[in-house]
Amino acid sequence: MTLGTADFWTAPLSALSGVDITDARFKANPFPFYARLREEAPVFPVTLRRLRCEERAWLVTRYGDVLAVLRDDATFVKDPHKAMTPAQLRRVPSVPAVFGPLGRNLLSLDGADHDRLKVLVHRAFTPRMVERMRDQTQAVTDEALDRALRRSGMDLIADFALPVPLRVIGRILGVPGRDHGRFSAWTRAFVSVGHRSPLTVIPSVLAFIRYLRGLIRERRARPRNDLTSALVAAQEGSDTLTDDEVLAMIFLLLSAGHETTVNLIGSGTLALLGHPDQMERLRDDPALMGSGVEELARFVVPAETATERYAARDVEVAGTLIPRGELVVAVLASANRDPAQFERPDTLDLGRANNRHLSFGQGMHYCLGAPLSRMEAQVALTTLLRRAPNLRLRVPEGQLRWRSGFILRGLEALPVTL
Fold this sequence. Notes:
Number of helices: 18
Shape: globular
Largest sheet: 5 strands, mixed
CATH architecture: Orthogonal Bundle
Order of helices and strands: HHHEEHEHHHHEHHHHHEEHHHEEEEHHEE
Helix content: 40-55%
Structural class: alpha+beta
Number of strands: 12
Number of domains: 1
């Protein structure tokens, strides 16, 4: 169902169950919808459409309830097999076999399986490693802006927000410079799975998997100073990561980590353009960029919802019973605008204090790539504002298109002049 922003407040509550939260038009401004739910129905069922199937999803919208869901990994589990009845599992659509090796990752496992992977991955993906990439991130950012400034404009998504973190993650993983073109093309195909049928990207994913398996074999034989080598070498006692687990971790960084950074830079720039007083504030005081990126993450919410969780038992949340086995969606975009947690939540305030937003999650599944995303956004936005003092939109904001899909929230394109 398609409703206008004003309709979210005037339509009967029962009509809102037909709202498609994956629709691109909804993504443009989902906040009034979630505000209505916070006030009147903080746990609300909608029909979620994905992979050509429909299923009921329970939207949890108040900050306190969202936080409780994210922290209660015993009741709200990632693995549907630990929650669903056999009858429910039979209705789950099958995933193409090509994606099978990617299933054992930090976002799909619970309990001891998750903890084991987390310990090993943290030995490789360290804050020190992220900080070591700051100079390279600066170099990649400057290269992208050099090209854009020569043309006096760009699509800020395709020409800046997307290639900068993609080049950085390629360098972190140890992808040779000669392979960056193929690596970029494969990555873009893979991350499009949420917006297209998985069948259309199978050839690209197969080629990408073959390439990464070769890279993993190469690093086992001849380690270097890169993340792939560190993942291969990570050890806790006698335990190490298998090739499939290293592969799944790389794909997780490319999908969850890379996409959120693209959206943070792209949507964050749009928010600054829409709030020129805040943009000037940031230009005048670059030291504000740390809190500024946190506020942009809260305000534009690059991941609209947390990843899937399933009720492991019948459970009551905010007075509403969620049946066992059903999909529970913690809505980060709503929690981040909850007036019970944030003063003037719909106002962009780059100096906001005590900004305990949930854009990177919470609990055991807190985003592993959050430090990298923060660093890349800080470097990219600082450099953009410094080198493009005349930055402005090239088209009216109402003409901008948002990407459809579940979980993420980001722009298709952002044409700007410099």
